[in-house]
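G., the chain you wanted modeled:
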Amino acid sequence: MKGTLWILLRDKTNSILRKNFYFAWIGSLTFLAGAINICALVLFGISITHYTGNISHAAVALGSGQLFILGKLLAYIILFFLGSVIARFLFHRNESDLCKNHGLMPILFGISLLVIYKGFNSKAATLSVLALGMGIQNGTCIRINSVLVRTTHMTGYITDAAYSLVAIIKGDWEQLWKLRFYGISIFLYFIGGIISFIAIHKIGNLTLVVLAILYIIHGIIIGIGCAIKVKKKHREGAENG
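Predicted structure as tokens:
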């Protein structure tokens, strides 16, 4: 009896820790994406985490004959798309669980951003890395209780939050956690943008260096967490076996 209670308590504790770890992972990526987008907007005059506006700007550029601007916008759109393709190859079997690649990709993105910033100091090269990196991040999807998580833009979350609110009003209280999740995500994206804006006015382009380092730290923490999870799973398997 005592052994059964211990197993139930252990499983419940592991479930809570796992859920909190996932939400911390999602929240930190959402915060960082908000900060990255403000960097791109303030420093380079272009949004880089989502592309509804950029597609519209590309249409305007084509209509007005601004072919150079059109080419740049199309390049960033294609890089974002390629990032999503890469993410799909890496994570198509991991939509319900974290794996080592979830830690590796932010580390590589942070290192690439540092190398481009220090080695090239080029606006086009920096934006290209940001576009590809944000494409990978947005394509690194994971499902939590049937919710498909995205971290680089909030348009869909605003619509989903409205849907959840209406469902709650109609008496479906199971939608409450979704509304809370969407609200917190939007808030974190917003806060990331505010802090990034303040940092830009304090340290300028070095804000990108800080964000690159934060991505590397984020990846290391996720990698350690995944390693602990795998080790714990093996240990529990051995005990149950």
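Residues 1-14 have pLDDT under 50 and may be disordered.

Shout if anything looks off.
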